[in-house]
Amino acid sequence: QVQLVQSGGEMKKPGSSVNVSCKASGGTFSSYAVSWVRQAPGHGPEWMGGVMSMFGVANYAQKFQGRVTIIADESTSTAYMELSSLRSEDTAIYYCATEFAGAGFEHWGQGTLVTVSS
Amino acid sequence: DIVMTQSPDSLAVSLGERATINCKSSQSVLYSSNNKNYLVWYQQKPGQPPKRLIYWASTRESGVPDRISGSGSGTDFTLTISSLQAEDVAVYYCQQYYTTPYTFGQGTKLEIK
Question: How close is the nearest chain B Cα to the Cα of A111, in Å?
Answer without folding.
Answer: 7
